[in-house]
Amino acid sequence: MDFKWLEDFLSLAETHSFSRSAELRGVTQSAFSRRIRALEEWLGTDLLNRDSYPVTLTPEGVAFRETAEETVRMIQARRAEFRDQARNRGGEISFLALHSLTVTFLPGWLMRLKSAAGQMTSRVKPENFDRCIEALTEGGYDFFLTYAHPQVNIPLDPGGYPHLVVGQDSLVAVARPGWPREWLTEGMPMLKYSRGSFLNAMARIALAQPGAPLVYVAHTDESSMAEALKSMAVAGHGMVWIPRRLVEAELAARRLEIVAPELPMQIRLYRNAARGRGITGRVWQAARQSGEGEAR
After folding, report:
1. What gap in Å lies between CA 96 and CA 29, rounded to an integer?
2. 173 and 213 in contact (C-beta within 8 Å)?
3. Is 144:109 a contact under the CB 8 Å cutoff?
4. Residue range 155-187, pLDDT digits in tens
5. Number of domains in the chain
């Protein structure tokens, strides 16, 4: 059983609305519904009367609500105790970050941050965009490092999750040098990220730009790992839209070349405002001083 299923159930018991609880939990309604159903299957009973509107609890749901509330309260209290102990030992900060940022931007930036904010322990979890949003709003992490673009929605309330612009990158279309020139008229084979991934959304925006090449999908990476698609491009399978920082070495060595106009992207640091004391506050201040703009 996944702990977040209990929090999902308690939210639904409070709102009596799948759509409202999904919004509060930072997930799609379909994903939220699947998680509630998974909890019911794990327990072996129905917790909800789905035929009523608004949704109501079954007798089993009423009984289980008390158990879920006590379980969540005890686990959250113990987690807070453990995290306080870790901070008292010298400070720990926790980051969520998109996979490609963990291998390009984050290592050097984090060293500069530690130099400015003082010695600390850091914990980094690379994840896809949706899971990062979910984990940040669940309260287990201090910061979230992500790409951003005005046309891509980042579903975080600015009051609870302010952000700083801490860097810049761009999305570039690259292919192995020597690609067949008939690709210009027949279409370039494109290496695609999975549906719903952040870089897939960015690639769609880039393809709508003036000067973007004609393409057709030749390969889809279901894990949406930019590093995997970079390897496919180097091997000659086609072109891929990818963060420029991730292919700088390949561009310099002429193992890849740019085949379309670049799409600028910001690198943003989002903060869980509820976790702003001690070392977390110092890190935010250091990030503000080293970044490119004020908190928003």
Report:
1. 23
2. yes
3. no
4. 999 999 999 999 999 999 999 999 888 888 889
5. 3
Cis link prior to 54 (omega < 30° from 0)?
yes
Query: Which whole-number Å values give the CA distances from 245 to 68, 78, 91, 248, 252, in the listed order?
Result: 45, 40, 30, 5, 11
276 and 137 within one domain: yes
204: domain range?
169-265
Residue 64 inside a domain? The answer is: yes
**Contacts with 218 (C-beta within 8 Å, 6 or more apart), sequence order:** 189, 190, 191, 237, 238
Do the domain assignments include residue 296? Answer: no
In this structure, the number of other CB atoms found within 10 A of the CB of residue 280 comes to 23
pLDDT tens for residues 199-253? 999 999 999 999 898 999 999 988 778 999 999 999 999 999 999 999 999 999 9
Q: What is the pTM of this model?
A: 0.71
Tell me, what CATH number does 200's domain have? 3.40.190.10
Q: What are phi and psi of 291, to 5 degrees?
A: -85, -165
Same domain, 16 and 41: yes
Q: Determine, yes or no, domain membership for 295.
A: no
